Prior knowledge:
This is MarR family transcriptional regulator. By secondary structure, this protein is mostly helical.
Amino acid sequence: MNSSSGYTKAGMMRVCQILEEFRQIYPDMQTQTAVFFVTIAMNPGITMKELMERTGTVQSTCSRNVSLLSEWLKHNKPGYGLVQAMEDPVERRRKIVKLTPKGERLAAQLDYLVSQPLR
């Protein structure tokens, strides 16, 4: 650790690698949307309410990011296809969000990247 700043060059290089991985796969994905993806990956079956709480966002921001990560946006525009929001079978007004198979592959790819030596 750099004693005067509290961070290391290696740590910043790892962060850069992960951001670059997102950028290479999804060049137009905003960082906030990437944070939503990672939060959903860490919490399979998270509710929209829990997602709002964990990301510190309001309902409209949460819904917009989940839509971006989903298969389709409004007006039949394609989304990233990384998550799926579905009705909770127990509480129909509640939505549960989980990764799609494509999202699972991206999460595994990011996990693998983190476990590798810095390049």
